[in-house]
Every structure is written in C-alpha cells, then in structure tokens.
Amino acid sequence: MSVTPPHRSVRVDLGDRSYDILIGPGLIARAGAEIAARRPQVRCAVITDTNVASAHLGALTASLEKAGIDAEPLVLEPGEKTKCFDELIRVCDHTLGARLERGDVVLALGGGVIGDLAGFAAGIVRRGMRFIQVPTSLLAQVDSSVGGKTGINVSHGKNLIGVFHQPDLVLADTDVLDSLPLREFRAGYAEMAKYGLIDRPDFFAWLEANWREVFSGGEARIHAIAKSCQAKADVVAADERESGARALLNLGHTFGHALEAATGYDGKRLVHGEGVAIGMVLAHQFSARMNLASPDDADRVERHLKEVGLPTRMSDIEGGLPGTDILMTHIAQDKKVQRGALTFILTHGVGRSFIADDVPQDEVFRFLEDKRAS
Amino acid sequence: MSVTPPHRSVRVDLGDRSYDILIGPGLIARAGAEIAARRPQVRCAVITDTNVASAHLGALTASLEKAGIDAEPLVLEPGEKTKCFDELIRVCDHTLGARLERGDVVLALGGGVIGDLAGFAAGIVRRGMRFIQVPTSLLAQVDSSVGGKTGINVSHGKNLIGVFHQPDLVLADTDVLDSLPLREFRAGYAEMAKYGLIDRPDFFAWLEANWREVFSGGEARIHAIAKSCQAKADVVAADERESGARALLNLGHTFGHALEAATGYDGKRLVHGEGVAIGMVLAHQFSARMNLASPDDADRVERHLKEVGLPTRMSDIEGGLPGTDILMTHIAQDKKVQRGALTFILTHGVGRSFIADDVPQDEVFRFLEDKRAS
Ligand SMILES: NC(=O)c1ccc[n+]([C@@H]2O[C@H](COP(=O)([O-])OP(=O)(O)OC[C@H]3O[C@@H](n4cnc5c(N)ncnc54)[C@H](O)[C@@H]3O)[C@@H](O)[C@H]2O)c1
Ligand SMILES: NC(=O)c1ccc[n+]([C@@H]2O[C@H](COP(=O)([O-])OP(=O)(O)OC[C@H]3O[C@@H](n4cnc5c(N)ncnc54)[C@H](O)[C@@H]3O)[C@@H](O)[C@H]2O)c1
Ligand SMILES: [Zn+2]
Ligand SMILES: [Zn+2]
C-alpha cells in the first residue's frame, strides 16, 4: 500500500545548510513524527505567544511527546513589542535553564514575531543551536519562516539587531490559518502578492483571479503558499546574506518600515503586512513618477490590494502620521542605506522590480509630501 | 629602495572569510594605514576599556584619523563582568547611534573581554558588520582575537551566548604588552603553553628554555606569539565551528571554567588564564590517574607553569572553593557536554592531547576531591 504525503515540499538549497519546507494540512499533528524522523531523541524549547498557545500549543506538545520528544514551552505576550532585547534574554535563559544542548532544538510556534525572536535566540545560545519553524500566520508561512533572517527591534529601528540563522525544518500547517484573524491573513497576503510583483507577473495575475479561494482555504491556499515559499527559496538560495538580489524582497519595505516606525509599531494602527501593502503601492507610484513605469501598473496594484481589503494609502492609517521629515529620518535609518545614498526597490511594472541605488532623497521627500495628502 | 615589513603575518584560511594576523611592534601607530589600505573610507566604532584607553586609545585614534578614518570610541569598565547583556546592548546602541553601516567596522581595542563583547556586537548589529581586532593582552593576541568565537557570560555559565563572527583583520602590536600587568602577561602565557601541550611538543620545550626572553620582549616574544597564532589558525581553519578537532583548544578549560565560575568570575581571585593553567595541570594529572599518560608529564607541566609564576593547584586560589558537588555542576553545565556524558580534553603526554568523550562523572568527582586538598 503506498501513501502519498498529504503535503507539498519545497527545498531551500544552501549546501550543508539546506532544508525542507513542508506545506499542507495536519502538519502540527505530524510535527513530532517529522522531527523525530530527522533528529531522534532531540529535546525542544517551544517558543510561542498567548494567542497561538491557546489555539495550537496543546496539539503541538502532544505530537512531540507522542514521538518521545521532550518539549519545554515558553509563552510570551503577542505583538511586535515582544521582539526586543528583554524578551530575547528571556528566551535564551529559558533554553539554557531547560539544559538544552547544542544539538537540541529551539522551535518557534507562531507568527513572524515569535519566529524572528526564537530564531535569533537559537542563533546565539551556545553560539548556535538547531532551529525549527512552525509558522502559524500567513506572513510567517510565506515569508519570515524561510531564509534565516532573525532579529529584534531597538530604538534606532526595526530588525537592526539579529543574525542569519537558517532553520533545519519548516512545518507550515495550512489548517492553523483558520484561527488567524482576517486582518492578519490579509497582511500575509500582501507578502504573497509581493512575489508576483517582484518577478512573477503570472503569479500576480493568478492571485487577481483566485484570491478568494486563497482566503477560503483548500487547494488554492496550499498552492499559493507553496508558490510563495518557492519564490522566496529561490531568492535566498541565490543570495543568502543579502549582498545582492535578496534585496528585491524588500519591495515595499523601505516605505513600509518607515510607516511602522512612524506609528510606533502599534499593531492596532498598522501591522507589518499592511505597511508593506501601502509601501508596495508607493513604490509603484514613485516608479511611475520617476518615469520608470506606467501609472497603470500602480493603479492595478492598488486596485487588487484594495479589493482584498488591504490599506493602500498613507491616509488609510488611523490616527495620522508625523511630518514628512520624520518619515525621511526613518527611511534613512533603514538598513538598506549605503553611504548616505538611498537604496530603494523600484519597478518597471508588475513583475519587473529592480534595485535602485542613488535614489535622490529630495525626490522621495516631495513624493511623500504629495502622496500623504491623497 | 625596498623595505621589509616590520611585522610577521599569519593567514587564517577560511575561504572567503580568510584574514591576516599582523604581529610586531608599532602596529597601533600603523593601524590607520593598514585599515585604510584594505577598506578606504570606512568608519569605526572603537570599543575599549578604561585601562587600555588610558595607555593606547589616543595613539589608535590619532592613527585612524591620520588615515581619514572616523573613529567613535566607547570606553567600558574593565573586567570579566563587562561581558554581559547590558554592555552588549550598550555597544550595539553606540554603533547604531554613530550611524555606522553594514560595511563599516567595529574595532575591539583591548583584551579578550573587549574582543569577545565587541565581536559579538559586530556579529549582530545589522546582522553582521565588519570587525577588526586590536588585541592588547597577551591572551587576546595568542588566543581570543583569532578564530571568530565571540560571546558573553550569563548566570547559567561563561560564554554561553554568542556567535561565530570572524574578524577581517587582527593587529597584534607586541609593544602594547609592556603596559600589561605581569599577572595578565602570565595568564596569556598559559594559553601559549597550551599550544605546545596540545600537539607541538617542540614548542613547549622551546618555551621551557626561552620563556624569560618571551617575558622580557623583543624577537623571542614576537616569535612565540606568531607561533601561537599559527597554531590557533591551523586548528580554526580545520574546524571553524568546533564540530571536531577545535575542541582540543579547550585543553584545561573544562576544569578552568568551573574554577572561574566557582570564584564568581572575580578577577582579583582568578583570571581566565590562571584557571586554564590549573586546569591544564589537572587534565594531565587526571590523564595519569586514568593510566593514559605518565605522571612525569604532569609534573613537568606543573613545574614549568609554576616556574613562570602561574598558579597550578586549586589550593593556590585565595579564599577557598565551594564543595566538589558545586564544581561538578559547573563542569556539567560547561558547553562541552554531549547528551549528559562528559567530554574532556585528556592527554597521552606533553604534545599528545586528544578528545575523550564518556569520561565518567564519578571518576572526575573523586579526582577533584583528592586534588583539592593537595
Ligand atoms: N525574518 C524575516 O525574513 C521576516 C520577513 C517578514 C517579516 N518578518 C517579521 O515578521 C513579523 C510579522 O509577522 P506576523 O505578521 O506573523 O506577526 P505576529 O507574529 O505578531 O502574528 C500576528 C498576530 O497573529 C497572531 N497569530 C499568529 N498565528 C495565529 C494563529 N494561527 N491563530 C491565531 N492567532 C495567530 C499572533 O499572536 C499575533 O497577534 C514582523 O516582526 C516582521 O519584521 C520577518
Ligand atoms: N574568543 C575566544 O576564542 C577566547 C579565547 C580565550 C579567552 N577568551 C576570553 O578572553 C577573556 C580573557 O581575556 P583577557 O585575559 O585579555 O582579559 P581582559 O580583557 O579582562 O584583560 C585583562 C586585563 O588587562 C587589561 N589590559 C589589557 N590590555 C592591556 C594593556 N595593553 N595595558 C594595560 N592593561 C591592559 C584589561 O583592562 C584587563 O584589566 C575571557 O573573557 C575569556 O573567556 C576568549
Ligand atoms: Zn515583510
Ligand atoms: Zn582560554
């Protein structure tokens, strides 16, 4: 009797740091078996947040324990503020206190916040432990759990402290997304659309036609997540440490990060993927203004993101924004700055993004001044 | 007119992470020129401690500024306690506050404490900046500045949090050692002797004959430092991430770390190299007790280290030690533990060390009980 696996598998090709992303339903229940098959007798520190814990921690620890894997859970507060030095110290302390050794595992069960924080801890405890991602938000499944970027925020800016530390395995259980608030699902969808906008125009067109099925679940959702993971895996394999092409993944992110900073990383006002959605529209509009792309493409992008329910304009952010000079400071402090000149991801149109250095600061300033009013 | 460089050069071979160690007099005065030749227009955060700053910071910053390199100094308290999360955060904050970019440099001017702390910060700020070591203690010149191990101490133990982050350049100015307290020079000498004890019996014999010249300076000192750097570079090139042979560098360190922990990392009672000296004698004595080596070798090692003025017995530590059960806890928490079995570096004699796993805990316990009285 032969059984086909119930999930898709995407390989991230990084030599001796290669790993698999499994995508499909029921993977939390299979987590223990999948991990034990790869690393028998391993022990796990399971890092999660209260939202995810109440819905999925029990199922995960049951699955681990059934496979003979000792699980030591640590449940943190949800939200972007958890990505800070204090919580990093807590995760390190928990992992050491549980007497985990170098070959043992830090497992992130949660969204990008938990993944980035736990991954950073895994990268520095004992100078690098094993790391497994069980992403539970759409954003984490299609983006943050793949590629090994980890980090925390500090007063100088977002994600300014961290390491590259690749996971050993990613288990993206597509069922868990049903407990995700719709707003968070939409935010993750923005990153999914991003892959189309960077260099896969066909995928963007497919999403325009099929986004409702992606939201409702089933095969279309699994397909779209696998496509997105493949897109990210390709970029990461070509440029693990973001010395070149990987920067394309920052489409919409320089503007987006500035908006997140300007709203004090207050998830009630703006979550990461929403900032990216507005940022991607701005990147297309700015490209049009610089005569690099047609304004029709910017309109098309805005139309689609708006249709799925994402914010697309700065004026969509409740509570107002600080002055444009403050936004510019956040943009300049963003880490994609080289020797003072601004580096942006701009585009020649849908699916035709490129890295532009030497973007004139004053052009960006005037553009933002004009746009914030609209 | 041809000029021979006034220094030796040792290459650490790590593919695209390879780098040079320059060893010789006057290198602080040449630092600006050496750095500018490799990375023109770079900016530097210079991390140091008050002891080193008063003797050498002025000379370094003058040299950097003469070469057109902007230097942003941060002067910390000296001592092992500085290797902690709070100071790590300070160094990160200083570096970001100075608006250094990814291609800019964190420069460590100091002993192993400053090197380990600043190197860790360099490894995590913007997920990895350039890093230059200007080691000023003998221990840092022959050991800690080479090989890319960085880290801090936490309540669970020493160096349990950190990253591997290779420097881009190491400048070991042999003149600066003249301001080093004799006790610290001796401590560094213990690590130098270690290379002979691991696998270079001729070098150990050379040190027995020439140690006075090494202490007094000049050619013998430069030679011994270059020999030591070469020994460390060879091990690091063969096993960058300590998955195998690099563990040999821990000769004397499992015992040594336990003694440091047991004295609360109080440098007045015991500095790192002194712990290593006692630890190396213990490793040789324990090997003899296990019938792996002749007791004559242990005596020879003890005689030499004692002759240069290093402590060689637990009873040499002022203020007494906690119970052997506490020492054993520190030994078991040491990161060289695999699945509960103790891994030690033992020896078949001078220059014939090897990695022993499965060392019985109770044998170690009884050995320590016997030895602490002697
Ligand atoms: N490392 C990378 O490459 C990378 C890439 C993109 C984004 N990020 C980071 O990811 C973070 C954003 O990720 P996120 O949007 O997943 O944020 P998040 O982790 O805060 O998750 C969003 C919210 O959804 C909740 N949640 C998650 N899964 C759930 C589930 N299955 N059921 C119910 N609630 C659930 C969380 O508790 C949280 O309240 C940001 O910090 C961003 O910087 C990192
Ligand atoms: N990263 C590694 O591979 C590695 C290897 C061995 C040791 N270490 C670490 O190194 C540390 C010990 O290094 P250390 O012995 O250099 O300690 P240290 O940095 O504390 O220096 C010892 C003392 O000498 C002073 N000093 C240093 N240079 C001086 C100079 N030229 N003139 C006057 N005073 C000077 C310092 O201020 C300090 O008081 C420990 O934390 C240990 O864990 C790391
Ligand atoms: Zn993103
Ligand atoms: Zn040492």
Automatic annotation (TrEMBL), chains A, B:
It is an enzyme of class 4 (lyase). Its EC number is 4.2.3.4. Its cofactor is Zn(2+); Co(2+); NAD(+). It catalyses: 7-phospho-2-dehydro-3-deoxy-D-arabino-heptonate = 3-dehydroquinate + phosphate. Keywords: Amino-acid biosynthesis, Aromatic amino acid biosynthesis, Cobalt, Cytoplasm, Lyase, Metal-binding, NAD, Nucleotide-binding, Zinc. The keyword Nucleotide-binding applies. GO terms for molecular function: 3-dehydroquinate synthase activity; metal ion binding; nucleotide binding. Zn(2+) binds at residues 191, 253, 272. Gene3D superfamilies: 3.40.50.1970, Dehydroquinate synthase-like - alpha domain. Catalyzes the conversion of 3-deoxy-D-arabino-heptulosonate 7-phosphate (DAHP) to dehydroquinate (DHQ). This is 3-dehydroquinate synthase. The lineage of its organism: Bacteria, Pseudomonadati, Pseudomonadota, Alphaproteobacteria, Hyphomicrobiales. The gene is aroB.
